[in-house]
Design brief:
This protein is of the alpha/beta class. It has helices spanning 42-54, 72-83, 97-105, 132-145, 160-176, 193-205, 219-227, 254-267, 295-310, 337-341; strands at residues 29-32, 63-65, 88-91, 111-115, 124-129, 150-155, 181-186, 210-214, 230-232, 246-248, 250-252, 274-277, 284-286, 320-321, 327-329, 350-351. Helix 7 links the parallel strand 8 (210-214) and strand 9 (230-232). Residues 1-22 form the signal peptide.
């Protein structure tokens, strides 16, 4: 899935001229999903964006195909969407990257957008979000709400996207609570509720009183609810799975991007580029913060959100050390996109292995 940008070096606009685009073009969009729409997480959030796109008057009823395996099988599915006349195809998982590029080479009149990858072509662009920004903000809440200073993090795979999220979250935690530790357990899966629940329970067993997650199911929330802990969700607002435990969640608003993409294709202004939007652009943000979080904490989160939007706060600004005490950034230095996209270290305060 979203093995984002393991080899990408920097988000750059690509110099492709792009396919010849007609103005006032009707859009027939096709979406390829790695999980089920009912996962309440990653795929569910994408599908909300698809439905938002469909509200545009020039967008025809769209098609989605769910639970498509990454790899060779995805090429068959993408080809099928082309044969059925879709002129905008969105592939929403990292593992679809090579298949997307291959199919695009043979179908230059179709526009393809690939989520979280780094390969582009004249009719292929990429897109993702700066999820590290709301991760940092959610860490502030976790750091303020823990009483044991043990925060658990149920994580999928040790890849830059996930590592970046863990680090941003931990920097948020320790900006308000330098004594807190973030303990990481890897599940090696994006969507397996049973494995996710076991990982969450293992963190609760060692004393974590707040959990966070990079998973596509609500099992971590359900574990926290059952054990009387707090939880930070992910992907979408899953509070109904844990009404007492839920604090907030870093969430996606894919509709903000999908509507703009459809408009660009419709107007004939689409171009191949690599999109990496943040809180300022409305693609990522925090779900409503629960009433149990104190007002002063909410105010602090609002203040730092405004600073991120204004460009005066960047979570990865020095001085910054890795957990072994080695300096990563000097005072006032800000990490580049390329460095963030290839992140392979833990910051101070993270406990866990970086290996699979």
């Amino acid at each position: 899935m979203k093995k984002t940008m393991v080899m990408a070096l920097v988000i750059l606009l690509c110099g492709f001229a792009g396919p010849v685009l007609a103005q006032d073009k009707q859009i027939k969009a096709g979406f390829v999903y790695v999980g089920p729409v009912g996962d309440a997480g990653w795929t569910y959030a994408h599908d909300l964006g698809r439905l938002e796109m469909e509200k545009l008057p020039f967008v025809e009823p769209s098609t989605y195909i769910e639970s498509v395996p990454e790899g060779a099988e995805s090429a068959r599915v993408i080809n099928g969407l082309v044969r059925r006349g879709h002129n905008l195809i969105l592939t929403t998982s990292f593992g679809y990257m090579d298949a997307t590029i291959d199919v695009a080479k043979r179908n230059k009149d179709v526009i393809f957008m690939h989520c979280s990858g780094y390969k582009t072509a004249e009719n292929v662009g990429t897109y993702f979000g700066r999820m590290y920004e709301p991760r940092y903000l959610s860490g502030i809440i976790a750091g303020k709400m823990t009483t044991k200073n043990i925060i658990g993090y149920v994580a999928a795979f040790p890849i830059p996207e996930v590592i970046r999220g863990i680090n941003a979250f931990t920097l948020g935690v320790r900006s308000v609570n330098p004594e807190a530790q973030v303990r990481v357990v890897w599940t090696q899966t994006w969507f397996d509720p049973g494995v996710e629940r076991d990982a969450a329970d293992s963190l609760l067993d060692v004393g974590a009183d707040v959990l966070a997650m990079h998973q596509d199911a609500p099992a971590t929330l359900q574990a926290a609810e059952a054990r009387g802990a707090y939880v930070i969700g992910y992907n979408s607002d899953m509070r109904h799975f844990a009404p007492n435990a839920f604090l907030t969640a870093p969430v996606w608003n894919w509709g903000a991007l999908y509507t703009q993409l459809a408009e660009a294709v419709h107007n004939g202004t689409w171009k191949s580029e690599q999109i990496w939007w943040g809180v300022k652009d409305g693609l990522v943000g925090l779900a409503d913060i629960h009433a149990k979080v104190p007002d002063d904490v909410k105010a602090l989160v609002q203040e730092r959100t405004a600073a991120i939007v204004a460009g005066t706060l960047h979570p990865f600004t020095g001085p910054l050390k890795d957990r072994d005490g080695h300096q990563v950034l000097g005072a006032g230095e800000t990490m580049s996109d390329g460095e963030m996209l290839s992140m392979n270290f833990f910051v101070e305060g993270v406990q866990g292995t970086l290996s699979k």
